Amino acid sequence: MTENKESKLYYSEEENAMVEDLDDLKELGKEMEQISEKNDEEKLNQSHDSEVRSDLNDN
């Protein structure tokens, strides 16, 4: 009975896994890097409130 329970647990973990091998891990890393770069570009292109941003002051 214990073996069956452990088997189901392992299957569940495997079913929900994002990666199965090193190639999957590399691909996931590339996708995460692209998302991060896109988010960085969006933040860079946002307008900024000059009263909040001290580096935009002309002092």
UniProtKB/TrEMBL annotation:
Residues 34-59 are annotated as: Disordered. It comes from the Bacteria. NCBIfam families: SAS053_fam (NF040875). This is Staphylococcal protein. It comes from Staphylococcus devriesei. The lineage of its organism: Bacteria, Bacillati, Bacillota, Bacilli, Bacillales.
